[in-house]
Amino acid sequence: MKKILLNKQIKAIDAATINAQRIPSHKLMERAAHAFVNSIDWSAHMTKPVRVFAGPGNNGGDALAVSRLLLNQGISSHVYMCRFGTSLSADCMINFNRLQAYADSQIVDIHKGQAMPPCDGLIIDGILGCGLNRPIIGYWATLIKRINEDANHIISIDIPSGYYADGHQKGLSCIKAHEVISFEMPKLSFLLPESQDAIESFKIVKIGLDTTAIDQAHTENYVLESKDISSILRPKRKFAHKGSHGKACLVGGHSGMVGALSLAGRSAAASGCGYVYYQSHFSQKEILTGLHPSAIVLGSPAASEKTAHSISIHPDMHYGIGCGMGTSPYSREGLNSFIKVWHKPMVLDADALNLLASMKYFTKIGMQQSYPDTMIPPHSILTPHLKEFDRLFGMHESQLERIHTARKMALLHQIIICIKGAHTAIILPDQRCLFNNTGNAGMATAGSGDVLTGMTTSFLAQGYKPEDAAVLAVHLHGYAGDLSADCVGRYGMSAEDIITFIPQAITEHLC
């Protein structure tokens, strides 16, 4: 897993690197500029003018070094030096003088109140870096607005100018970057949904920071990597049989929502589970059997409307509850009765979460609420999207607030909470938050969450620890979505498409 560190920690690691490697700070800046330039296919942008906007700090020094390196490659750029400080930082001044020494350099000073410079073409944004601690206002905010409106493409160095590294602030005036090239590790703010207005995509490049200093830095925030998944996944053994790969039981499919349940069951099977069982209203048996012939539908044709919603107990199964379950009083009673007697980890999603919310199972800010005579079993996995999360725990202003609440609840109840979305956040009982780095916007389609429920239940049934089951399901769900997008495109991609690519996603992560 890759660590996510706060800005002050990254500054300390920069200093530790300079000390341990006995290099001047401008040499580290030079590394960053080389890594930035080498990470971009410049040939794709040469039909438009290249404009570099540099501020007076170290981010501006990076931008000036980038302009010089581009000149060395025969790529000229117009450099606009934003003079909003009293002086340039020491390393920025070094790179300013180096660039100025080139006969073909084109540097224009910009002062507050001047006419706006041209902002079309490819923009390299190095106006402000991670040290920003107050909003941009006035003339410089207007300049940023002009760049956002006129630029054909914007690439920010390390972070979009005006955006905060450690979290989101409402109403910021900031660069809206098409690409961000950041150094060594992502900023926390990159992984929050609020960043979508500032960052279209980002790439992390290495600049040789001191690994000992990084290892010693404390954090509770991480980004999952493919190697983490490969270290968990187990290949199927030669003499394996269906009985050795677990029994997943998916509960739901009421009120005309049997398709949701089927998606969960089929994804459980695609994830390697030995048996898939359904518990739904018995009237849905023929439909479920038609959709998923290898599954087993539990229930009695003589069941009443009330008993049809009860959940039968099978000790050797692992349960995923909620897909298309409905929120009727009968469903509520069935869930509540099951939780009273079931003590193994289970997966709760969709209507199961809505029912818990209607029971006021949790409070807004993490204190224990009066329960309906029971407790969710420890190490159970909850997979809410943002609205479901707020129904469960109260309204939140930002994703950081949700993660803070999830940490409290995960610790208090010893449960795992997966807040679904781009960069799904997996919050563990030990307070760690693991951000996912797979998936794409094409997965924003009906049934995608049901697929995740089935995958999570499947890995739980196969004997993976609940923490590992959640990590495997979230990462591989996104990876299957990426494979699907590569095949059919992001527009019109369906949940069924994601299921199709689950086996390949698993295979590509097996050691």
Summary?
By secondary structure, the chain is of the alpha/beta class. The protein has 17 helices and 18 strands. The protein is 38% helix and 14% strand.
Question: Mind explaining what this structure looks like?
Answer:
This protein has about 500 residues and is of the alpha/beta class. The protein is about 40% helix and about 15% strand. The chain contains 17 helices and 18 strands. The strands form 2 sheets. An 11-stranded mixed β-sheet has the order 1-9-18-17-16-15-14-13-10-11-12, sandwiched between helices. Strands 4-3-2-5-6-7-8 form a 7-stranded parallel β-sheet. α2 packs across α3 and α14 crosses α15. It is elongated.
